[in-house]
Amino acid sequence: MQGLLRKVVAFFLDFLETIVVALSIFVVVYLFLFQPHEVKGGSMEPNFHDGEYILTDKISYRFKSPERGEVIIFKSPTNPDIDYIKRIIGLPGDTLMVRDDSVYLNGKILTEPYIIDKTVILGSGFLTEGKEISVSDDRYFVMGDNRGHSADSREFGPISKKSIIGKALIRYWPIPYFGVIEHVNYTY
Prior knowledge:
By secondary structure, this protein is an alpha+beta fold. The protein contains two helices and twelve strands; from the N terminus they run αβββββββββαβββ. The protein has one domain: Ribbon (Umud Fragment, subunit A).
């Protein structure tokens, strides 16, 4: 009987050790490497839809700076409990202006093949029609792909680098849309 009890206790301890190691690995991966996010709302349509799930790369920006055209996830400037998904339009040092429903980046019209609607100015926000702004150091100007239905830098201004959680890496749900997320290298 004593031998059976030792085997049961040994099995239980081995099982517990396996669980602890697995959870430790999960926590490290979740906190420092990759994190799942759900797309909420229609601000990134037609490229990302409400209810889709993406995996966010949280480590790349520790070794390199974000680039124009990349889709990022960041903490909302107005409520840090909410994560936003948007596309980087302007980098530190860039100048931006919206005039006649077009985005001007560093004085030239920006070609944006990923949007279907024109860029509009939404009421009384940070950016006003025809006024050029400069993106300061350590800040990024972001916009949703669905320009008419997106709260973005036009409203709240450029975001800080420290608010960026990471880069959208893989769309994993729904299954028919599974794949690596391509980031646009656009011209202006």
